[in-house]
Amino acid sequence: QAQFVESGGGLVQPGGSLTLSCAAPEIALDFYAIGWFRQAPGKEREGVSCISPTDGSTYYADSVKDRFTISRDKGKNTVYLQMNSLKFEDTAVYYCATCFGLEPMYDDWGQGTQVTVSS
User: Do 13 and 117 touch, CB atoms closer than 8 A?
Assistant: First the structure.
C-alpha cells in the first residue's frame, strides 16, 4: 500500500482553524480518491471527507459539513483539509488514505497528525 504522510495538526482554541496536509511520495494522488479520517480517544475511526480523482466531487461527514474543506494541489501532489470553526469534538488523530465515499479502501494507516481543540 502507498505510504501517506499527514502533517499540519496542532493545538487550537475552539473556533480556530487548521490546515492538514496529506502527501504520498510514492504515488500520484491525482489518480485516487483521497480522504481524511479521524479517530478520537475511545472511539472508532470515522470518515471525515473524501475527494474524487475525476470531477473533484467531495463528500463530508455531517459533523464537519460547512466547516471543513478538502482540496488537491496537483503540482504539490498534496491533498489538504482546511478546518474552520473547530470544536472540542474535532479533537482526534487525523489520517489520510484512499477512500470510497467516507469509507477507507484499505485498513492501512500512517502515523496521522494530532489535532487538539482546547481552551
Answer: yes
Choose among 115, 101, 117, 1: nearest CA to 51.
101
**Which DSSP string corresponds to 55-112?**
S--EEE-TTTTTTEEEEEETTTTEEEEEE-S--GGG-EEEEEEEEETTEESSS-----
What pLDDT score does 90 carry? 98
- 3-state secondary structure (DSSP) of residue 11: strand
Per-residue pLDDT tens over the stretch 29-56: 999 999 999 999 999 999 999 999 988 8
Check if the beta carbon of residue 94 is closer than 8 Å to that of residue 80.
no
Asked if the model's pLDDT at residue 10 lies above 80, the reply is yes
Residue 85 is which amino acid? Answer: S
Q: Which amino acid is at 42?
A: G
Retrieve residue 40's grid coordinates.
478520537
